[in-house]
Amino acid sequence: xxxxxxxxxxxxxxxxxxxxxxxxxxxxxxxxxxxxxxxxxxxxxxxxxxxxxxxxxxxxxxxxxxxxxxxxxxxxxxxxxxxxxxxxxxxxxxxxxxxxxxxxxxxxxxxxxxxxxxxxxxxxxxxxxxxxxxxxxxxxxxxxxxxxxxxxxxxxxxxxxxxxxxxxxxxxxxxxxxxxxxxxxxxxxxxxxxxxxxxxxxxxxxxxxxxxxxxxxxxxxxxxxxxxxxxxxxxxxxxxxxxxxxxxxxxxxxxxxxxxxxxxxxxxxxxxxxxxxxxxxxxxxxxxxxxxxxxxxxxxxxxxxxxxxxxxxxxxxxxxxxxxxxxxxxxxxxxxxxxxxxxxxxxxxxxxx
Length: 353
What we know:
By secondary structure, this protein is α+β, with helices and mostly antiparallel strands. The chain has two domains: 9-191, 2-Layer Sandwich (Ribosomal Protein S5, domain 2), CATH 3.30.230; 197-344, Alpha-Beta Plaits, CATH 3.30.70. It has eight helices and 14 strands. The chain has helices at 76-87, 117-137, 142-156, 215-221, 228-248, 251-270, 281-297, 320-331; strands at 9-23, 28-29, 33-34, 38-56, 65-70, 73-74, 99-107, 168-171, 185-187, 200-204, 302-305, 311-315, 340-344, 350-352. The strands form three sheets. Strands 1, 4, 5, 6, 7, 8, 9 and 14 form an eight-stranded mixed β-sheet that branches. It has a four-stranded antiparallel β-sheet with strand order 11-12-10-13. It starts with 8 loop residues before the first strand and ends with a strand.
């Protein structure tokens, strides 16, 4: 078949951040749809940069032609995953079989360090693919562009759909959040007090080892979890409470909810069948020290966890000096090789030249 894109070539590149969920999504159905709505902070310093060079083939053979490089080197494991993902997207992006693709991807943070690399990497890839479509078809409205990129990112990694928006994003249909959807995330920064747009996130690396149970497997175990229905109701209620706290600038209520969400997430893992535990002794020690510090110093320092042992410390920017002093002098002893990654709420993806 003749190639309708004959002689067309180009390159596009995006930087997409990771995100940290405040109300967690845990459990999914269908094609990467969430069982409950979630909300996240978009990060700033933890990001993936991805570029795609695309060159029209002489003719379409219906195969995806891909060369993939991660941090400058061929990575067969990642390449196979990306190959399968691209093959699944031909209906959304009919141009894919007509081009040879060379993809380069790199993270600003080490892989497997408690930062959602699948979120940033799939968001960056989705933004690049949507940009190519935009360049070939003549463009779409910016809001529709990011909506489609969010939808495509979701197909690669559920939480990735939240990484295409600045500051905060909500994903999942919720009766009290206008325009919320299971298909894609929506931006939510306009609905919160300014204090939350400058929050800090210090990520304490308790362990950089690969998780014993993947997030994909953990989500699947929710299908038979005896507490699943109660959890989905709790998450949606917590989202209501958190949204109200963030509108009002109520940092104490915000902290109470996000810590409850973190512990509930890990409790669900422990009562799954088979059960498993991803927190480690130093995770619990850090949590205990945070609670003691907060009580004694009256400093608004709160924690959350993803599906792993590492701890995200969330605090207002005006408290950064005292909190980071506490981290360096007290908490680093409980981190692997005294490793901490200092991050903050960020302004979302950037198209690179």
